[in-house]
């Protein structure tokens, strides 16, 4: 796939020299947003490229533009398209949508019977997912594979996830079930109708007030505070 002199294709072993650039941008982007993603090493990303389980976007002169990779869980029953990242100078160009479409197609080619899912803190990614046929779901509909959730340990919001017994966190869960799903046009239209609601919820989740509340609650609970206060507050963010 090529758009505006940007090539979007399946990554291969010849792309491993981009791995450090990709993981550095993943980390800096997460810090800038004030939210967390599961941290990945350059070796991990390079391995995904070598396995043909990643999509990369490059300019025609070889400048790195964007990236995303495939992970499998529960013996291939679930597939996640993870680590979507676009270089800052190429954001809002439509390249993220192109990458998501290509990694979605690659996942369906490699794992036609798997449920595709994702966790995201971004409204833009939710919009792209909805155009592919993903639906917002509760965390209980995702893989319960411990190794998947262990990957969240490097996320700054891991304490929230564990305080909710892995039932909710700052991210929104989305799922595409090949055996039971709406058509992409239907999920797209639904998202457009509900986008303002999702936007407000995401802003509440990611607000500085929430960060301050987490610290306050931790201090209060450690000093004999009321733990039910924290529970009722986070229950407000359930989808």
Structure description:
Helix content is 45%, strand content 19%. The chain is α+β, with helices and mostly antiparallel strands and 239 residues long. The protein has a single domain, classed as Gcn5-related N-acetyltransferase (GNAT) (Aminopeptidase), CATH 3.40.630.30. Strands 1-2-3-4-5-6-8-7 form an 8-stranded mixed sheet, sandwiched between helices. Helix 3 links the parallel strand 5 and strand 6 (115-120). Helix 4 (123-132) runs antiparallel to helix 7. The longest helix has 22 residues, at 184-205. It is globular and about 45 Å long. This is GNAT family N-acetyltransferase. InterPro entries: Acyl_CoA_acyltransferase.
Separation of the first and last Cα atoms = 35 Å
Number of helices: 9
Stretches where pLDDT is under 50 for at least 5 consecutive residues are: 224-239
Overall pLDDT score: 81
- How does the major sheet shape up? 8 strands, mixed
Beta content? 15-25%
The secondary-structure element order is: EEHHEEEHEHEHHEHHH
Total DSSP E strands = 8
State the helicity in percent bands. Answer: 40-55%
| Structural shape | globular
At CATH level 2, the architecture is 3-Layer(aba) Sandwich
Instruction: Tell me the count of domains.
Output: 1
Order of strands across the widest beta sheet?
A: 1-2-3-4-5-6-8-7
The top-level CATH class is: Alpha Beta
Question: For the record, what is the CATH homologous superfamily label?
Answer: Gcn5-related N-acetyltransferase (GNAT)
Radius of gyration: 18 Å
- Named CATH topology: Aminopeptidase
- Structural class designation: alpha+beta
Organism: Danxiaibacter flavus
Protein name: GNAT family N-acetyltransferase
InterPro entries: Acyl_CoA_acyltransferase (IPR016181)
């Amino acid at each position: 796939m090529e758009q505006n002199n940007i090539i979007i294709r399946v990554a291969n072993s010849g792309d491993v020299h981009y791995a450090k650039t990709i993981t550095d941008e993943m980390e800096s982007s997460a810090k800038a947003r004030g939210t967390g993603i599961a941290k990945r090493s350059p070796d991990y990303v390079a391995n995904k490229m070598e396995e043909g389980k990643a999509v990369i976007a490059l300019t025609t002169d070889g400048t790195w533009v964007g990236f995303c990779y495939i992970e499998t869980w529960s013996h291939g029953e679930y597939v996640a398209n993870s680590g979507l990242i676009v270089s800052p100078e190429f954001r809002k160009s439509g390249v993220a949508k192109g990458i998501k479409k290509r990694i979605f197609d690659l996942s369906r080619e490699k794992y036609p019977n798997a449920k595709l899912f994702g966790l995201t803190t971004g409204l833009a990614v939710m919009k792209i997912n909805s155009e592919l046929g993903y639906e917002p779901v509760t965390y209980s509909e995702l893989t319960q594979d411990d190794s998947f959730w262990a990957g969240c340990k490097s996320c700054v919001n891991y304490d929230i996830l564990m305080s909710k017994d892995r039932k909710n966190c700052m991210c929104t869960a989305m799922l595409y079930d090949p055996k039971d799903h709406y058509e992409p046009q239907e999920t797209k239209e639904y998202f457009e109708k509900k986008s303002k609601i999702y936007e407000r919820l995401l802003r509440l989740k990611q607000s500085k007030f929430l960060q301050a509340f987490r610290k306050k609650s931790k201090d209060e609970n450690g000093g004999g505070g009321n733990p039910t206060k924290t529970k009722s507050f986070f229950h407000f963010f359930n989808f």
